[in-house]
Amino acid sequence: MKEDKLFTPAYFESFHCLMGACPDSCCKAGWEIPIDDETIAKLRTYPKLEIDKNICPGSDGDTVLRVNDNEICPYLTHDGLCEMYIQSGMMGDVCSKHPRFYEEYYTGDEIAFTEAGISVSCPEAARIVLSASRSDYDSLSKVQTDDDLLNFLLSAREKAFDIPSSQLIAYGELLQEEIDFCTFELPGHELTDSEPIDMPSLCDFILTKTEILTPEWRKLLESCGQGSFGNIPKPQKQALLWYLIFRFFLKAVNTEDILTECKLIVALYELCISLSEINGDFTETVRLASKELEHDDFNLDLLRDYLSQS
Fold first, then answer.
1. Nearest to 306, CA basis, from 274, 264, 259, 273
2. pLDDT digits 0-9 by tens, 258-306
3. Is this model's pTM higher than 0.90 or not?
4. What phi and psi values does residue 4 have, to the nearest 5 degrees?
């Protein structure tokens, strides 16, 4: 991709994989690990890796690495390194990019620009993201395209970064009116606080309707409403909100439904705060929520449907 069309938060380049020092390797996260055909073909030239023995069809029909009974990648060494990389100097495309994510935005059939970030499911990425400042997202405002809706959402997102979570859904309601009538003017109305998300109902929905990956996540959801901790640093909470706005706000360009994206942002934000009050560990709760929801499009779509009807 062209560098002049790639936009990232300022912290993006500061990420470096901890490799063997990682406290929670993505190689044992319980996810399916896709591997592309080109990499498979090259790895077949390294017989010691036995690549054909260690791949199988994934749930989406793609090819994935065959994890063991403990959901661990077969190439993860005892010291936390990748035997595949040690032997061949290469990894699959997904492995080499994670926890980086890339979102392409189009005008017509052409890519107008790409945004990239780092996912808070990764311990090191979470440390960086939850320590971010507002200025880390300033470079994103420089994007301009030939698409009226996309330009509107870009301008609206820039303002959203400075709106408190309690007013973000009200802001989404005003933005939705602009989109519905194709007027694309940023609202000048004074915003009001919205009703808090019904957290017990949200937790029950996630627990009963979505795919649950880890027992830790299930236990947290089952304990919803029993929180006792309240010492989450305000800068960390604010940094999470900025991250969620960056991660999801522009996805409304595909659906023209900015109100649901604002509800999703607020729901995930309040969910992480509520559940972290149970275990007293905000960063770990954010990471769990990211693993279970952010990285699962099926779960996200279920959550969007639920929130759109609330």
1. 264
2. 999 999 999 999 999 999 999 889 999 999 999 999 999 999 999 999 9
3. yes
4. -75, -5
- Residue for token pair 């408190």: 164
Find residue 110's DSSP bridge partners.
Answer: 107
Token pair listed for 124: 């090191």
Contact 272, 282 (CB under 8 A): yes
User: What is the identity of the amino acid at 22?
Assistant: C
Amino acid identity at 190: E
DSSP string computed for the chain = --GGGEE--TTGGG----GGG-SS-GGGSS---B--HHHHHHHTT-GGG-GGGGEEE-TTSSEEE---TTS--TTB-TTS-BHHHHHHS---HHHHHTTEEEEEEEETTEEEEEEEEE-TTSHHHHHHHTT--GGGGGGGGG---S-HHHHHHHHHHHHHTTS-HHHHHHHHHHHHHHHHTT------SPP-PPPPP-HHHHHHHHHHHSPP--HHHHHHHHTTT--------HHHHHHHHHHHHHHHGGGHHHHS-HHHHHHHHHHHHHHHHHHHHHHS-HHHHHHHHIIIIIT-HHHHHHHHHHHHT-
* Nearest alpha carbon to residue 170 among 258, 83, 111, 72: 258
Place of tokens 């507002």: 134
Residue % of the chain over a pLDDT of 70: 97
Residue 82 burial (CB count, 10 A): 20
State phi, psi for 110 to the nearest 5 degrees. -100, 140
